[in-house]
Predict the structure.
Amino acid sequence: AQTYAKFVTNDATFTELSKYISRETSLYKKLSALEVQFYADHDKYEFQDTTTSDFTMYNDNCFSIRVKFTHIVYRTNRDKKFEFPSDFTFCFVKKNGNWLVGDMTINS
């Protein structure tokens, strides 16, 4: 979840994000084509108030979990910060012994 948030603010590359996502999914294809344009220059970020909930195990190879946090981005050389409440549900699938994201929902 945090790597996706960093990807949206250009603090992580798709290559960094893609290692967590199953390549056979439409999510992988959509994110690989996404051009992220976060225009506010910033020099640091942090994540606060991270919580997880709604863990659901569907079978031995699939589960989902909700992840919430506040993504804070600090503008370069300014006291201004932006706070982005982030709330996701991830569906994980087991591929070759590894757990990868098979789908993601941005909750409102």
Q: What stands out?
A: The helical segments are 2-8, 14-18, 26-33. The CA atoms of residues 61 and 97 lie 9 Å apart. Residues 26-33 form the longest helix (8 residues). The mean pLDDT is 91.
